[in-house]
């Protein structure tokens, strides 16, 4: 199963674009910071990931301010010519 749930803030966002099929698309960079217990030790975790949303999710996310916090749910996929996985956002709610 390929499913990711991530609490993160919108660190960077592009303008709304449209796919060749006319579907609205939104590209962003998300940043996560938290503390988690690993091997009995408290560890500070930071992560940044590229993300994309399509359709109504794209139209809603493009209106959100940079720095706003959300809980994103989606899946990971590597673009055809890419080296790193991208989070494809399927749903989100206020964190």
Automatic annotation (TrEMBL):
GO terms for molecular function: single-stranded DNA binding. PROSITE patterns: SSB (PS50935). SUPFAM superfamilies: Nucleic acid-binding proteins. The keyword Metal-binding does not apply. Keywords: DNA replication, DNA-binding, Primosome. One of its GO terms (cellular component) is primosome complex. One of its GO terms (biological process) is DNA replication, synthesis of primer. HAMAP family: PriB. Involved in the restart of stalled replication forks, which reloads the replicative helicase on sites other than the origin of replication; the PriA-PriB pathway is the major replication restart pathway. During primosome assembly it facilitates complex formation between PriA and DnaT on DNA; stabilizes PriA on DNA. Stimulates the DNA unwinding activity of PriA helicase. Belongs to the PriB family. This is Replication restart protein PriB.
């Amino acid at each position: 199963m390929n499913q990711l749930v991530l609490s993160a803030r919108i660190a960077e966002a592009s303008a709304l674009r449209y796919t060749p099929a006319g579907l609205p698309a939104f590209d962003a960079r998300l940043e996560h910071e938290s503390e988690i217990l690993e091997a009995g030790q408290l560890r500070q975790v930071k992560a940044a990931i590229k993300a994309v949303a399509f359709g109504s999710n794209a139209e809603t996310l493009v209106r959100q301010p940079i720095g706003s916090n959300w809980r994103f749910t989606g899946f990971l996929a590597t673009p055809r010519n890419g080296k790193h996985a991208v989070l494809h956002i399927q749903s989100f709610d206020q964190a």
